[in-house]
Write a structure and sequence with these properties.
Residues 1-11, 22-34 have a biased composition (Basic and acidic residues). Residues 1-34 are annotated as: Disordered. The chain has helices spanning 232-243, 270-276, 287-293; strands at residues 40-46, 49-62, 69-81, 90-99, 109-114, 117-140, 149-173, 186-192, 204-212, 220-229, 253-255, 262-263, 296-297. It is mostly beta strands. The chain has one domain. Strands 1, 2, 3, 5, 9, 12 and 13 form a 7-stranded antiparallel sheet that branches. The chain has a 6-stranded antiparallel sheet with strand order 6-7-8-4-10-11, with no helix packed on it.
Length: 308
């Protein structure tokens, strides 16, 4: 057999190579035995796109002086493209809080969040759209006019303007897949790029969450999940990698209200670190503290306040 006949090619098939080298590492952060309040939660890189989640500050105290036990947690997130043309187009972050022993009555209550509401990031992009509505009118054209059937389309055009924008939305909700009663137990953050401008989503984000607890004796957990979307190659490679088990789920973060305040060392832009270092009254943990501690850093800036 001639070498050219050793292997026949199929014009309808193609080879897809999924690189599973160290660059394709996934969600693999684990607790050390007995570890409390693990600060590094998610560390994932796939196809030159990096997703990270971490804890930047933890304050256990009370909502008011002699009030209910409360905990303030500042989470940090990073969505970086490791190349000029690499960017994330959207992402959804869920943080579920539960009692460590899965006693539903002891779940911490998500009291509030920053950002809570709908935010526009950067300047919206104006888009002009032309909408056409038409109908076809047919008729027999006689021999004197060529002896053919003729059709004419009558169209009505209407131009109008819309805007595209990069957005950040924060919500407090009850995850009914976990329990279908009681106060909220989950925080959800959704990020979308300005698709028209191809801006990508915000690259660095801090979110601050205020929890109300039953007492100081109950430990609780946080489960952080991130669903990020980029181009087809990233979405496909990450989907297959996760499906075949190369990206195991990260451990829950276990919180102990009896531990002292913790803050991550400086490592981001100065204005973000200055926000993180703001003094917090442990006997007055409220929404004002959240506004002072959280911030957004990226190629876009916060342009509009939350709409509520």
């Amino acid at each position: 057999m001639a070498p050219s006949e050793a292997k026949k090619s199929d014009e309808y098939s193609s080879d897809i190579q999924l690189d599973t080298v160290t660059e394709e590492r996934g969600y693999h952060s684990r607790n050390r035995e007995g570890e409390i309040q693990r600060p590094d939660i998610v560390d994932d890189i796939c196809r030159g796109l990096l997703v990270q989640s971490r804890i930047d500050r933890i304050v256990h105290g009370t909502e008011t002086k002699d009030g209910e036990p409360a905990t303030l947690i500042v989470f940090g997130f990073r969505f970086h493209g490791l190349g000029k043309k690499r960017r994330f187009r959207e992402a959804t972050i869920n943080i579920l809080f539960q009692d460590a022993d899965k006693v539903e009555e002891n779940d911490p209550i998500v009291a509030t969040l920053w950002p809570n509401g709908d935010f526009t990031l950067g300047k919206p992009t104006d888009i002009e759209i032309e909408k056409t509505r038409g109908s076809e009118v047919g008729g027999n054209v006689g021999a004197a006019y060529g002896g053919a059937n003729g059709n004419r389309t009558w169209q009505r055009r209407k131009n109008y303007n819309v805007t595209d924008r990069a957005s950040l939305t924060g919500s407090v909700l009850l995850d009914t897949d976990v329990r279908d009663w009681g106060p909220p137990n989950t925080v959800r953050l959704t990020l979308h790029e300005d698709e028209t401008a191809g801006s990508g989503i915000v690259t660095d984000l801090r979110a601050a969450v205020l929890l109300i607890r039953q007492n100081d004796n109950y430990k609780f957990t946080a489960k952080v999940t991130i669903d990020a979307k980029a181009d087809f190659n990233y979405n496909f490679a990450k989907g297959v990698r996760d499906l075949i088990g190369l990206s195991p789920a990260n451990d829950l973060v276990l919180f102990n209200p009896g531990t002292k305040e913790w803050r991550r060392r400086r490592g981001l832009a100065r204005y973000l670190e200055d926000k993180l270092a703001e003094d917090v009254d442990v006997q007055n943990l409220n929404s004002k503290s959240l506004d002072e501690l959280a911030g957004v850093l990226g190629t876009t800036v916060l342009a509009a306040e939350a709409t509520e």
